[in-house]
Design brief:
This protein is α/β, with parallel strands linked by helices. It is built from 15 helices and 6 strands. Helix 2 (68-73) links the parallel strand 2 and strand 3 (76-77).
Length: 337
């Protein structure tokens, strides 16, 4: 295998999977699961999830996790692998995905990576910058400050120490603000400095297209189509018992808003509403919270689409115009082994 590692053991910039990967990506609610299952009816596929939320056990409704029938239809990997109190990151994903791709190919089957966590895809294709990890003390300090001052205040601090990163983050983007400040407080250098060195040393996308395999990108031609699907999905999740799912998680003493699992889109909005003692049995309150969750999901989808459009070598599938499965299968079967 040609994956290189930093002294910490993490994959670094320049690493590539041993085999050109087949990836099906797209914004949330674009139809990735349905298309992956349709492809599995035509090809000997096993699915590797590329979703930072599906890894958590007990978080089913709010993550739109494939149901039991879908999971039984085709082998799935990297779903329900850790407890919500644990953390999972891009470095661990790269190690897991490379191992799984090798095992699946050894079985004579085709690994299909499916999901919308773009950082994971980027890490798999380009490797990771050797960015320092935060100490528990730094992380605890930032968690305490966020609880006392709010994330906009920490975003203001990030603007002072790393304006390049702050400019591209929303004031309430807790996970990314925290990570950027962790790097600053740990190393004394902005995270954008590490990322800039990676970008300057990277070859252009055209040069990377061949070893990168095939990236099938589900993208709507009309953003309103996707927004309607996001709103409908969130309403359905609320009807399926999403609030009760969050209530059960919130009863655990080891879970809190500082954890990546609880900060997942949707979970955070419902959790915060419960913290505010809002009556989520009231239809108007539920509708308001659902709209907050849908709005956060729309922002996530916007970031996902922006990332995909930065990859000119991707193969775009207009998900709001119907997908021709017969046209996709030859693209996959022509991939080098």
């Amino acid at each position: 295998m040609n994956t290189s590692t930093a002294p910490s053991g993490l994959p670094v910039a320049g690493s590539l999977p041993e085999h050109p990967p087949l990836i099906l990506a797209g914004p949330t609610a674009s139809g990735k699961t349905a298309l992956a299952l349709a492809l599995a009816d035509r090809l000997p596929i096993e699915i590797i999830s590329v979703d930072s939320a599906l890894v958590y056990r007990g978080m089913d409704i709010g993550t739109a996790k494939p149901n039991a029938q879908e999971l039984a239809q085709v082998p799935h990997h990297l779903i329900d692998i850790i407890d919500p109190a644990e953390s999972y990151n891009a470095a661990r994903f790269v190690l897991d995905a490379n191992r799984l791709m090798g095992e699946i190919r050894a079985r004579g089957r085709l690994p299909l990576l499916v999901g919308g966590t773009m950082l994971y895809i980027k890490a798999l294709l380009d490797g990771l910058d050797d960015i320092p990890s935060a100490t528990p003390e730094v992380r605890a300090m930032l968690d305490a400050r966020a609880a006392a001052e709010g994330w906009p205040a920490l975003h203001a601090e990030l603007t002072r120490v790393d304006p390049l990163t702050a400019q591209r983050l929303a004031p309430n983007d807790a996970q990314r603000i925290q990570r950027a400040l962790e790097v600053w407080h740990t190393s004394g250098r902005p995270i954008s400095d590490f990322q800039r060195r990676h970008r300057e040393g990277a070859p252009d996308a055209a040069a990377l297209a061949k070893p990168h395999g095939l990236l099938l990108s589900l993208e709507p031609t009309e953003r309103t189509w996707l927004h309607e699907r996001i709103g409908l999905r969130f309403a359905q999740m609320m009807a399926q018992g999403f609030v009760d799912e969050v209530r059960r998680l919130r009863q655990r003493s080891d879970l809190h808003l500082g954890l990546p699992s609880v900060r997942c889109v949707g979970y955070r909005q419902v959790w915060e509403a419960l913290d505010q003692d809002l009556d989520l049995d009231d239809p108007e309150v539920r509708t308001d919270v659902a709209e907050r969750g849908a709005a956060a999901t729309r922002q996530l989808a916007k970031r996902q689409i922006t990332w995909l459009r930065s990859m000119p070598w991707r193969h775009v599938l207009p998900c709001d115009q119907g997908i021709d499965i017969d046209a996709i299968v030859p693209l996959i079967t022509q991939l080098p082994a």
